[in-house]
Specification:
heterodimer; A: mainly alpha; ABC transporter involved in vitamin B12 uptake, BtuC; two-stranded antiparallel sheet; about 75% helix; globular; B: about 350 residues; mainly alpha; two-stranded antiparallel ribbon; 2 strands; about 70% helix; transport (chain A); ABC_transp_permease (chain A)
Chain lengths: ~350, ~350
């Protein structure tokens, strides 16, 4: 027992060095991309445009960090975008029915409803030990279908949304929108949670080695359940941000956005097998996607290319990850694959 | 049994009989009744009776024939997908492959290719996409879930990049036979292809060495590897076959619709995987039968058709499909916990 912590420490520090260099490489990639675009279009790196890009990527930052918590435990949450859409449409309808309600109840409702939808995944994964990919593939369809049930296919347009509902995330503060500040606060919170709290560290343990976690008194499935509730709550909150930012709510809101969140994690170096990944990596991964998205129309590439480029970037990133991650590669042959 | 003496006292004989009764494998009939496939048959029969009572138009052979179109293309992909999941892998990119293959066929048709070349382009695109997935998983050692999440948006994305929001509607004469032709009476060519493939896959999975090896790989890849099975080669072939079948499904779908757009078959991966899991294939690998998958395909087709008769919109059917998927994987767990079914089955 006494030797074990020492062994982990030496291994962790080696791992940390490796991760640090990886994050550094990703940061360099982001800078290179920004500079390359700026050589042709200097306005791309103007402070106001960078602020716009941050505002545009803010929701992705939050969702990717939430997804990271889930992936760290060795699970995956495909239902985040459907949860986001269902919660977003619901709060938009509530706002349309009671315009005088103010923002605070809307945010509480979004958080609670999102967490409840996430808890549904959590219970299935935790209590029934079901594989998360199948569960969330199912809830993705169910949540998305429920939007049609509550709206009947109708849209909620900006003229039905109150000024407070639309204005909250747009409040400027020190040159950035409130939405950007919330995303930055979310990044700080994730750094604190995953590095300096017991629950956060346990998420890593649960995905890093399930048996070891179990024998250390950490129920890995309970940690997965916690991650799903976090993911749901953040998705719900982002649901309000999304419908407010785009000032419209309908059935197909954020369709396929779960892939962007997973892509940000994978590009950021989060191991899909669990237990490996840094907040900085995920933030840089999301930023990379945000830069690409905003650079495309500028350099004259049709928006129809965006999906193909995102897919290519994910595919290349997973190949690079699989090659670099010797631990995961060894695990695939000699141990059971995480379902 | 040989260890027991020849002559035994009557009470000993009775005791031995009791032990044998308790430990003997269940009778053939008991096994059939307890099987997942039997449950599917019962559900299908119940749904069939309910539909025929609910609508006077249901029990018409041409109506039933029309009803097969809504699931046949998905079922064609579900067959190899079952083999893939039994072998402990998964492919989420199948709907993306269908879309890309359709776009490629549209381009071939625009270039003036004959109907059979158009079909070959579809099959070839599917096979190529499947081989890319296989290479990612076997050569680059990427977990199948992530690899196919990436290629899912890559394939459909390439379709969008090529076609944008355009639609291609002109196909050469003769191409419509795949999705609109009839092989014999009310038996559509599509459905005939599906039945033929189902028989082929059933034989391969349940009656050949290849099938036994797939079960071995699904139960434990490590043991399979150390038993001398070329695990990676089988994995690659499975992904290639799933890709080829997606290409075939795309040929049928494109031919039936008579048009191509990059947004076709959105969300089909969900329905195809649901079909496989509903058919009793364990998502953890190593367990499943083609009969179960065929029955699940028929059952899902029946549910969709029945809901259609009741004028339920498509997106609400999505709730049913998603709910079905979750119910199908959670019900056995709950029943096993409650001691109603034996844990060995799933």
């Amino acid at each position: 027992m006494a030797a074990a912590p020492a062994a982990t420490t030496t291994r962790r520090s080696a791992l940390h060095r490796w991760i640090a260099s990886r994050d550094a490489a990703l940061a360099a990639l982001n800078v290179v991309l920004a500079v390359a675009v700026a050589l042709r279009f200097p306005d791309f790196v103007a402070p106001s445009n960078l602020a716009d890009i941050l505002d545009d990527t803010a929701i992705l930052f939050l969702l990717a960090l939430a997804q990271m918590c889930v992936i760290l435990t060795g699970a995956i949450d495909l239902s985040v975008a459907a949860n986001l859409a269902l919660t977003g449409v619901t709060v938009a309808l509530v706002n349309a029915a009671h315009p005088g309600l103010g923002v605070a109840p809307i945010i509480v409702l979004a958080l609670v409803m999102g967490a409840a939808l996430g808890a549904f995944n959590a219970v299935l994964v935790w209590k029934l030990r079901l594989p998360s990919i199948v569960v969330t593939l199912g809830t993705l369809a169910v949540y998305r279908g429920c939007i049609f049930l509550i709206t009947g296919g109708a849209w909620v347009n900006s003229n039905q949304m109150s000024d407070a509902f639309l204005g909250f995330i747009r409040v400027p503060f020190l040159g950035l929108t409130l939405l950007t500040w919330i995303a930055l606060a979310g990044i700080a919170a994730a750094t604190w949670f995953l590095n300096f709290t017991v629950a956060g560290r346990n998420l890593y343990v649960a995905g890093g080695n399930r048996s070891a976690a179990f024998y250390a008194g950490i129920d890995p499935w309970r940690m997965q359940a916690l991650a799903f509730v976090i993911s749901g709550a953040v998705a719900g909150l982002c649901g309000y941000f999304w419908v407010s930012r785009f000032a419209v709510a309908y059935v197909e809101v954020a369709q396929g956005f779960e892939l962007q969140a997973i892509a940000a994690c994978v590009i950021g170096g989060v191991s899909i097998a669990g237990g490996l990944g840094t907040v900085a990596g995920v933030v840089l991964g999301a930023l990379f996607l945000g830069l690409v998205k905003n650079a495309l129309p500028l350099i004259g590439i049709s928006p129809f290319w965006q999906m193909a480029i995102a897919g290519a970037v994910i595919t290349v990133a997973v190949i690079v990850n699989a090659r670099g991650d010797g631990r995961a590669a060894g695990r695939r042959i000699l141990e059971e694959k995480a379902a | 049994m040989n260890a027991l003496p020849e002559t035994t006292r009557p009470d000993e004989a009775a005791g031995r009989a009791a032990v044998e009764r308790y430990t003997a494998p269940p009778s053939r009939l008991a096994r059939i009744v307890r099987s997942w496939e039997f449950l599917l048959v019962v559900l299908f029969a119940a749904g069939f009776v309910a539909c025929s009572l609910a609508s006077p138009y249901f029990l018409d052979i041409w109506n039933l024939s029309d009803a097969t179109f809504n699931f046949t293309e998905k079922a064609i992909v579900a067959l190899p997908m079952a083999l893939l999941i039994i072998g402990r892998e998964i492919d989420i990119s199948v709907a993306g492959i269908i879309a890309l293959a359709s776009v490629m066929m549209g381009l071939a048709a625009q270039a003036g290719a004959a109907w059979w070349i158009v079909a070959l382009v579809g099959l070839g695109t599917g096979l190529a996409c499947g081989m890319v997935n296989g290479a990612l998983v076997t050569l680059f050692r990427v977990p199948a879930i992530v690899a196919t999440i990436g290629t899912m948006s890559l394939y459909r994305g390439v379709g969008y990049a090529i076609l944008g929001d355009q639609v291609i509607k002109s196909y050469p004469e003769g191409f419509e036979v795949f999705g609109q032709g009839y092989a014999w009476g009310p038996l559509s060519i599509e459905f005939a292809i599906f039945l033929g493939l189902a028989a082929l896959f059933a034989v391969v999975l349940h009656r050949t060495v290849v099938g036994r090896r797939l079960f071995a790989i699904g139960n434990s890849p490590t043991v399979a590897l150390f038993s001398g099975i070329a695990v990676e080669r089988y994995r690659f072939m499975l992904f290639a076959v799933v890709g080829l079948a997606s290409g075939l499904a795309s040929v049928c779908l494109t031919s039936r619709l008579g048009s191509t757009r990059p947004s076709i078959a959105v969300g089909w991966e969900l329905e195809i995987i649901t079909m496989v899991v509903l058919g009793g294939v364990s998502i953890l690998g190593g367990v499943g039968s083609i009969l179960g998958v065929v029955l699940a395909a028929l059952l899902m087709g029946l549910v969709t058709f029945g809901l259609g008769l009741l004028n339920v919109p498509g997106i609400v059917m999505q709730i049913v499909v998603g709910g079905l998927l979750i119910a199908v994987i959670s019900v056995p767990v709950v029943l096993t916990r409650a001691g109603i079914i034996r844990p060995s089955r799933r």
